[in-house]
Amino acid sequence: MSKQSLPVVDLQAVACCAPLAVRPIDAEQAAVVAPMFKALGDPVRLRLMSMIASAPEMCVCDLTPAFDLSGPTISHHLKVLREAGLVDSERRGTWVWYRVRPEAFRQLGALLDLPATTAAADA
Amino acid sequence: MSKQSLPVVDLQAVACCAPLAVRPIDAEQAAVVAPMFKALGDPVRLRLMSMIASAPEMCVCDLTPAFDLSGPTISHHLKVLREAGLVDSERRGTWVWYRVRPEAFRQLGALLDLPATTAAADA
DNA sequence: AGCCTGTTTTGACGTCTGTCAAGCTAGAGA
DNA sequence: TCTCTAGCTTGACAGACGTCAAAACAGGCT
Hints:
2 copies of one chain form a homodimer.
Chain A: H1 8-16, H2 27-39, H3 43-53, E1 58-59, H4 60-63, H5 71-83, E2 87-92, E3 95-100, H6 102-111, H7 116-119
Antiparallel strand pairs in A: 1-3, 2-3
The first copy, chain A, binds a DNA duplex through helix 5.
């Protein structure tokens, strides 16, 4: 099952999602995307996401001390981000490193594009 | 470089939020923005938001029948979107009309921008 | 006025979520 | 091997969330 030449990442980013403001998203797609927004809907996770996205990768040992929360709680939030497909984790030796998944990030950004047609209603 | 004609809307969009991937968002700002993402974190609300954003404005009477949910439930979800600052509502005669708030929409989109520096980690 | 339709509010119920303490697993080093 | 540290999992609990039925509110129509 080799899909060696297929650019999976771009396919997903482009084929999947027209901006929310272009045409109503269908129920099925909404069920897929909503958990991603939901994952960003907590202040702690939003900060974690931003810390991870602001660097090539981020060690849990650097993330945890930034919050007044227990280790398990941070771990739980990271799991939510991971299961939403927003970040990836990898253990290297003693520490676990988290890294953003740019496809997912781009997909959400594309959904929030505000085309010119709708922007006209602003003025 | 005269700034006398600077549009107010852009001020908010630019001054408020650097993209999540540029620098870690601070706790205060995260507390403000997270509820917006949270509001989009439900499939029904995501569809409502998309339906409203896809048209200049949308009547509740057209939104409700698109779901297998009671009127009060739809009304509740619309209230969540309204209190998150994502939409505005206005009663005109018999019906209530909902309209997207482009500033808020743009703000979220700006947060999810993926600058070239971080995108380099993709390849 | 009275009624009818459309929308929101209230109250209630079961489920989901964020949090911590305690226990567990993986890897490094002696 | 044994121990220490880093991180995850489990179990528990309070609070928040999604949903509906019933009631309340708003505006048009007779």
